Amino acid sequence: MVSLGRMRELYADMVTARHYEERLQEEYLEGKQPAFDISAGPIPGELHLAAGQEAAAVGVCHHLRADDTVTAPHRPHHVAIAKGVDLKRMTAEIFGRKTGLGKGKGGHMHLFDPDVNFACSGIIAEGCPPAAGAALAAKKRNEDSVAVAFLGEGAIDQGAFLESLNFASVHDLPVVFVVEDNDWAISMPKERVTDVENGSDRAAGFDMPGFRVDRDDALAVYEAAGEAIGRARDQNGPTLLEVQVHRRMGHFMGDPQTYRPDDDEEAALARDSIDRLESTLRDHGLGDDDLSAIRGDAEERVEEAIAWAKEQPQPAPEDAYDDVFVNPPSGVTTEEPDFDLAGGDDR
Amino acid sequence: MSDADDAVDRELTMSRAMVESIAHEMRANEEVFYMGEDVADYGGIFDSTQGLLDEFGRDRIMDVPISETAYLGAAVGAAQEGMRPIAELMFVDFFGVAMDQIYNQLAKNTYMSGGNVNVPLVLTAAVGGTYNDAAQHSQTLYGTFAHVPGLKVVVPSTAYDAKGLMHNAIRDDDPVMYLFHKRLMGIGWMPAPDGPKTPVPETDYTIPFGSADVKREGADVTVVTLGLHVHRALDAAESLAAGGIDAEVIDLRTLVPLDTETILESVRKTGRLVVVDEDYRSFGVTGEIIASVADGDLDALDAVERVAVPDVPIPYARPMENEVIPDATDIEASVREVVSGE
């Protein structure tokens, strides 16, 4: 059973994440209309939003402590919010500001918040090996922290994922691999590119437990993740957990989704995990006022973060030269090299 | 100007020109097929296969799992059986996932077999930045692929060149890396500069590898470049011309093989060399071109500059990305330096 208090917390993070994505979508489209130009507007570049995937993030991350590690893929905001990443500095990073998590160098696919051990990567499945590495470090140090790698269902065919399963299993590492199955790898439906219907079946080949939560249900995820993370924390090894989620928006903003049948999108929109949890909360006696108070707080938090981010300074052009190394080797200089090949004097 | 000036009125975007040559080769040879992520229904994220599924079906325009090692390696295997696969890396930055298949199999099997095995594979990949996609989606990596022996490396800058080079790539019996710049493709959501859309003949034609193209003739300075930066160099040349500096702009078109002769001929005329590249500065294209010229005719060289991405990953935020990716102003400044001798 999940306590009412915990349910409220899950709900609060879910509506925060949803509102966040919807607001980022608005901000992103600013300056990109009527003709969509990916490099225009206050948030340029690709933007991969996670509306519809909140259940997986909150159901898992609400079992985690700040010293537990999470790696996320290119679609990271909901996971970051659930893990407790600093929302203001994350938003500033997405807006490319100097006070962002990565001083504007990383952008939305490359968010790092060491205070809560969160990182993400834009390359499919490449967060899996580092998560296993964080688990390895915990094990070597006899600490009870755990690691969680989030990935999409399209990533379960990637070597980095499959090798990590074996590595984690062989070394009994305290790591959980969480597959967010939103049915689509950009334009490619799961059945066209993956041999198994349930990604969690992959676990059997690596001698580890595999579970699938086959509906968009934060409470079911919370319970399944509790077992998996408990196993890891008790030093009983890794688990593979797959969660059915859904994609409410395109793969990236600007994705025309012409490949996606209308009924698929409608079916996805109908299975909203936020509606589901809201209905459970009502069953537990929460009314309109309670729910709108939670939503109001969430929206306020998001608006504050966005407003703060937009006030932050832009990085200076020359900031680009910093941070390649923490300890720059001697001889590195930003001065233009002098190629006087034919000068004669120095030959 | 270049051989694109044939009496042809029809203009195509670079992506349409690429697709036209692929379709032509697929009609002519049943052994040609295309594999990649989102190349079927989507038509390629950067329009590289737009419309091909309708004509050729799923057996020949294959969506593949996100398993680059498997499908690039499978393309190597099919090519060694004599088929002519085209395999696409959605972003060149994803090469790392399948580096062994590229660097140790594709590039080396011909040599290690003493020439008894060949790999007629075209590996296409989208390259380049300028749209704030940050460090893992904005690289060109030209030098990385040109560095390892065994890969031919093609970088088109116009629709005309893209078509001819693609015909050549598919017909070539060796592995070809065909690197197309996203900004040049003519994608609706990523506006291209004016240059890459050119007249393109409907018939097939080839452009031999190792034939650099003088995109603009000039007497004062030689600007050697490739890809997107051909157009930035041409822009720079126009504004330099207003100030009385006459720049010659050479489009390499292929890095391997490298047309050193065309570069040397130009430098012998101008005495000044500026090499412009969207790859990292160190150990890359700019250094190689300058070294080749120094090797070939050191006495011809009075002054040299290079314009490239300083040795930092591509940063996300606009002011920093603009700082590190060379633009026309950077090229102009370097040209002025070599001309003034400062």
Question: Can you walk me through this structure?
Answer:
- The complex is a heterodimer of chains A (347) and B (342).
- With 347 residues, chain A is of the alpha/beta class.
- Chain A has a single domain, classed as 3-Layer(aba) Sandwich (Rossmann fold).
- Chain A has helices spanning 4-29, 54-61, 77-83, 87-94, 128-140, 159-170, 190-193, 218-233, 262-270, 273-283, 288-311, and strands spanning 69-72, 112-113, 118-120, 147-152, 175-181, 184-185, 188-189, 210-213, 239-244.
- Chain A has a 7-stranded mixed sheet with strand order 2-3-1-4-5-9-8, sandwiched between helices. In chain A, strands 6-7 form a two-stranded antiparallel ribbon.
- In chain A, helix 1 runs antiparallel to helix 10.
- In chain B, helix 3 runs parallel beside helix 4 (99-106), helix 8 (228-242) packs across helix 12 and helix 9 packs across helix 10 (285-297).
- Chain B is globular, with a radius of gyration of 19 Å.
- Chain B has helices at residues 14-28, 52-56, 68-80, 99-106, 109-112, 142-147, 159-171, 228-242, 260-270, 285-297, 318-324, 328-340; strands at residues 11-12, 32-36, 61-63, 84-91, 122-127, 152-154, 176-181, 198-199, 213-216, 221-225, 247-251, 254-256, 272-280, 303-309.
- With 342 residues, chain B is α/β, with parallel strands linked by helices.
- In chain B, the strands form 3 sheets. In chain B, strands 3-2-4-5-7-6-12 form a 7-stranded mixed sheet, with helices on both faces. A 5-stranded mixed sheet of chain B has the order 9-11-10-13-14, with helices on both faces. Chain B has a two-stranded antiparallel ribbon with strand order 1-8.
- Chain B starts with 10 loop residues before the first strand and ends with a helix.
- Chain B is built from 12 helices and 14 strands.
- At the A-B interface, loops of A face helix 3, strand 14 and helix 11 of B.
